[in-house]
Specification:
By secondary structure, the chain is an alpha+beta fold. It has 13 helices and 24 strands.
Amino acid sequence: MTEEILVNHTSHETRVAVVQQGATQELHIERAATRGLVGNVCLGKVSRVLPGMQSAFIDIGLERAAFLHVADLWQSRSGSTNGVGHLAPIEKLLFEGQPLLVQVIKDPLGTKGARLSTQISIAGRLLVYLPQDPHIGVSQRIEDEAERQMLRSRLQKLMPADEKGGFIIRTSAEEAAEPELEADIEYLRRRWRQILDGSRRQSSAPALLYQELSLGQRVLRDIAGDTTAAILVDSPEALAELSEFARTYMPTMAGRLRQYTGERPLFELHGVEGEIAKALSRRVDLKSGGYLIIDQTEAMTTIDVNTGGYIGGRNFDDTIFRTNLEAAHAIARQLRVRNLGGIIIVDFIDMASGEHREQVLQELRKALARDRTKSSVNGFTSLGLVEMTRKRTRESLAHLLLEPCPTCEGKGQVKTARTVCYEILREIQREARQFNPREFRIVASQDVIDLFLEEEAQPLAALGDLIGKRIALQVETLYLQEHYDIVLM
């Protein structure tokens, strides 16, 4: 299935959409003010070692200290085989104030700091370089064992005699010629030498030594492939940068880069702006009339499937089955577009037939197979829910573009005006026991004051008689419904 890649670039933001058959399949957004950190190599400083958690906090110059677990410390593996076995205790390897060469493997997410590793890897177009690990691996997407062995042999012949590191062969290397592989090896080794030289020159930590490529360049390196028909770029400056990068590292992609010069904005023309708006909504409508409700929380994401107005099946069971099949494809696409990760619970409509449940699971796994991000489907639980996970490496679309509502503070609901009225009455009664003012004045929103003047006038008057004080009312138009003050006059 061919695809188009759309690149919308400005000085402050780059947005990329992957479109197949007119439907947006992936969205990537990078802002100059909040550029992602994954792949960056830093000289950090150990700020705290936690033996009980076998982890450490590392200062890499961010607002929150980054997290390093002993399993991500390659120095701890000296007594183990391929990372398996007894790891050296972290307190014997690190101490507070120690400078440490680290790489960001996960961006800060929500309240969690960045995740680090001392196992450095530098990605190229065809290979991933592992300068500290003399291992040659092959992408899991290359399944044929004979092909995997042949690629290993080819790479070993091309590696310099003095090479002490290793490589992971990416899927894009399957059809690559030897000069292309040699060029990628030299590029990656040169990058590593620059990082080492930078770490030796640094007199203090923290310091950034290597920054991952820009979003546009990463798209060319990681997403564009044989199925990419064209890459449309709406900025001449971005096109020039990407063309130069493509000519140097991936000549086959240079000819697919195109300048978009249409009058309508690129994302608007291809319906991407509408897809972004839909991806920020809880509800996703299905073509059949059914719909999904997607709720994202700190702990997990839940997806509820509903038939809605769909009645197109031969019978009720068939209607449910067809809705669930359609929902499986919609769910896989929404996970990609919204970049949802972590634990995901799907509540498909209950199916009586075990055969139908198995077919829905197969359809979900088939749809997820097209995802570049690794996911795992565990099947139906005893409660009829589907448990699955999707690797989380960067912020979701909602976390990137939205923030908690200042009115409800992210709860999604606010107290009713009547609830606020009763809270105010209770608070005045409490304060009347401690203080002896001339009067109490309630300062609140229009809706709360209106309720006190109408339906709740009697309880307010009764409270005034009980405490023997006058209670005055004052509207503050800037107050939200839950906000109020009680002033002692």
